[in-house]
Specification:
four-stranded antiparallel sheet; single chain; 2 helices; 12% helix; mainly beta
Length: 162
């Protein structure tokens, strides 16, 4: 994967309003994310080889500064009609509001959240991924249905920033 291909991916992401993109091509996996303040992070890593096969060459992150910077799990995106932000799904999976069926929801409308507040779980390929708010504010509305599939970039919660 060369720089021209990575730039093309970033251009497409910008054009379509995407905040995260992942691509596996041959023996390289590319992940590009855009944080809430607009900064880009990219990384390319080799795909883990199957035991008994040839080892893959080590790839280096596209930018040392980008590799060191943590990328948000859920990047907020402004809504068209107000100053509210959306916490969006960083992946395709199943949305869960609580850690188990008999547990209370992580967050409820009216509840204050900060960047590190876990707001939900998205199950993808049998892995439970905790999604953090990545914004300081108050939950206005839950936009996804518990136990239902969500797509990449789908709004999960509406948040009024503080």
């Amino acid at each position: 994967m060369d720089l021209k291909e990575i730039k093309a991916v970033i251009d497409l992401m910008t054009k379509n309003g995407l905040t995260e993109f992942e691509l596996e091509k041959g023996d390289v996996k590319l992940r590009v994310k855009r944080g809430p303040s607009g900064e880009w992070t990219t990384s390319t890593v080799p795909v883990v080889p199957i035991p008994g096969t040839q080892p893959l060459p080590q790839m280096v992150a596209a930018s040392p500064a980008a590799a060191a910077a943590p990328a948000p799990a859920a990047a907020p995106a402004p809504t068209a009609a107000s100053t509210e932000l959306n916490i969006v799904s960083p992946m395709v999976g199943t949305f869960y509001r609580s850690p188990s069926p008999d547990s209370p929801a992580y967050v409820e409308p009216g509840q204050e959240v900060n960047e590190d507040t876990v707001v939900c779980i998205i199950e993808a390929m049998k892995v439970m991924n905790e999604i953090k708010a990545e914004v300081i504010g108050i939950i206005v509305e839950v936009l996804a249905q518990n136990g239902k599939p969500v797509d990449f970039g789908k709004p999960l919660f509406s948040v009024r920033p503080k």
